[in-house]
Amino acid sequence: MGDIAIKVENLSKAYQLGDFGTGTLSRDIERKWALLRGKEDPFLTVGETNDRATAGTSDIVWSLKDINFDIQKGDAVGVIGRNGAGKSTLLKVLSRVTVPTRGSVKIMGRVASLLEVGTGFHPELTGRENIFLNGAILGMRKHEIKKHFDAIVDFAGVERYIDTPVKRYSSGMYVRLAFAVAAHLESEILIVDEVLAVGDAEFQKKCLGKMGEVSKGEGRTVLFVSHNMAAISNLCSKSILLKHGQLQTLDFTHTVIDKYIRTGENSDGQVNKDDIIVKQHSTKAGFHALRLLSPAKGITADFGINEDVIVEIEYDVYHDGAIVQPSIHLLDTLDTVIFATFSAPSASSTVDQFYKVPLQKGRYKSTCVIPGNYLNDKNYKINAFLVPEGDMANMAIAENVLAFTVIETGNMRKEYTGEWWGVVRPKLAWQTEQVL
Fold first, then answer.
1. Per the CATH hierarchy, to which homologous superfamily does domain 70-262 belong?
2. What is the pLDDT of residue 351?
3. Are 387 and 377 in contact (CB under 8 A)?
4. pTM assigned to the model
5. DSSP-assigned letters across all residues of 198-251
6. Domain residue spans in the chain?
C-alpha cells in the first residue's frame, strides 16, 4: 500500500430500526444461516440512505453507503457534513468501535481516537491509571508510556487530580485528559470527533495547535470532524464531504468547504417555513419564509459582482403590541461574520416605519439590500434573527438559513479578475492628479 495510511473500499454501514427481527420465523432462520456461513445479510439490501429530511419505508437505514477513499500517511484530513451525514459513524468504523456491514477498511498503524467524552476511560480508575490503560490498549510498553506521562498531565492541566477517579472529573477535564492521551501516545493515526467543543476556547486552540504539530511535525495522520470551518481550514489540507451517508468528494479543503456551502439545503435562493431549521424559537415572532433576490433575475442564489443582493425576511408576529426587529448576519464559508445589520433608521435618517413601533398580530416582510460592487467573488451564507425589543433571550434564530455565490464573469468591472484578498471588494472612487 506504499504511503497509504487508510484505505476504504465499498464501505457501508446499516442500522436496524425498531424490531430487530425480519417479521417471519423463516426469514429469521434464513438470516441466521447466512450469517453463520459468513455471507451477507440477505435482508439488508432493501435499506435506504440516511436522509433524515424524508420519511422512510424501510426498517434498515444505511448510515454509510459505498464509501471509497485513500488517505496518505502524514495527511491531516477534515470530515465535513451536516448532522446525520455519517461522520461519526465513519470514524467509529475506522477506530474499530463498530464493524462495517459491507466493504473493507485497511489501516496501516496504530489508531488513537477521541470520539466521545469518556471514550476508552474506565470511570472507576484514576487519571493516572487510565493513561497507562490507554497506552496498553495501543500496544505500548510501560516504559514507553512513562516517557510521555509528564507531558500528558502538563498538557491536560489535571496534575492536581491525576490520582482521582475520572468519574469525578467535569466534562471539560475529561476531554482535556482524553485528548492529551490520544495526542501524546505513539500512534500513527489520530482520529478526533467534535468532542473538542466541550473544552473552553483556549483549550480548543491548544488542541488544534497540537494536532497541527502531530501532522506536520511528526508525520502522523490526522482525521478531524468539526462543524467549525475555520478550524478545518487551518488544520486540514484535504477534506472529505459526506451527505446522507455517501461520499460527495475528497479534495483540497477550500474546494470542499465551498461545495459544502453551495450544496446546502437552502442554496436555491429561498426557504419556506417548514424547511427553516430554527436554532432558537421565540414566543413573540417566527419565520415564515426567507428569500434572496436579484433585481434582474428574481429569486436566485447566484449574483454577479455588480448586482444588488436583496434579502427578504417574511415573518409572523404572534401578539398585538410586539416590537420586533429583523436582523441578519452575513458570513463567509469559514464562519467569519462579515457584518451584522438590523431594521433601524438608515444613515440618511429615513426612518423605517416599523422601527420601535408596536405591531399588530399578523405577517410582515422586511427587506435588506446588500449593494452591488461591495462583496468579493466568493460563497456566503446568512444567519437570520427576529429580535423582540428588550427581550434578547427570546429572539428567534435561524443559522445557515440561506447561501449564495457572488461571481465576476465577462470582466464586469473591467478590472483584474483573479482572486482578490479579503471578504469585501468595494468599488471605491479614486482620483489622480499631477501635483508637481
1. P-loop containing nucleotide triphosphate hydrolases (3.40.50.300)
2. 47
3. no
4. 0.65
5. GS-HHHHHHHHHHHHIIIIIT--EEEEE-S-HHHHHHH-SEEEEEETTEEEEEE
6. 70-262, 270-407
